[in-house]
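Here is one chain, start to finish.
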Amino acid sequence: MKIVTILMASAVLLSLPSALAGCACSAGGTWDPYAFLNYNPIQGVSPTAEGRSAVVQDGYRSDDFPNGDILRPMPSVSSSDTVLEISEEENSSDGAYVNGALRLSRRSLVNQNGTFKSPDEIASALGSIGVVNSDRIVVYGDDLGAAALGFFVLKQVGHRDVSLLDGGVERWRSMGLPLQSAPSVREESVYIPHKQDLVASYDYVMSGEAQIVDARPFRDFGISRIPGAIHIDSERVRDGDRIADNETLMGLFAPLQRDRPVVVYSENPDQASIVWFALQLMGYNATIYSWSDWVSHSTAVTQTAPGALGHSSVAGSDPGSGSRYRKLGR
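Its structure:
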């Protein structure tokens, strides 16, 4: 009788891997990343063991960064997380969403002039898709800029537990992780904002207290910029759908003093958000400023020699006053 019992138990145990191959669950209601990598319901792909090992290892980069807790490795995402996709258009993901993901429109987060919506407006948008303050959020986007923007506005309204997914939906797909053809839907909720001072003011920028970073393309930087700004193109901070590695970021941020605050600006909030997130990842204290706000306070200027803030030519100034900045017709 004992021998029969042992044989039956062994048969059950041997059958478990095949039974669980298509299941994304494990004890405690969390997902099993290895189950994901064994089977993809859309692709039907079963990567080799060697391929799985390489993919999983590549997915864990967060320990490489000083503040790596805000960068979420793909294989670590579980069913207890609230996954949030930020996208411009409803069909921008081509019918592929991270499993369980809610969708939040980018238009609900920024104004047409590139400034951010108010915390109350952002809270209303979050509540409309069922997000609550206690959610552990993992945010991604149809582009890295949208993802970084989503992370920024969530921190702006004081969300405590939020991280950025280390890659986009195509990388998720390549790892064999589960996808769904449409975003998930929740009942509306009441989201309570707790405003954080992450948007810099004109007076703060002019005070000279912070280091100023221009995240726009070099062409725009060459035409007009905030005097004294350091140029760090947002494209140099990214590696495809991911933030660049630690070594690259260290090189890009080498001109910055780590013990001084940083203000990042651009007319495109996605560009500013990418550089801002990278600075946060590397342990800098950073905020974001809107280029449109700068333009509304003074004429566009270009720097013809190194100098400090507050010495730019502005509307009505004397062209022969000896200013080191030349007014442009923009």
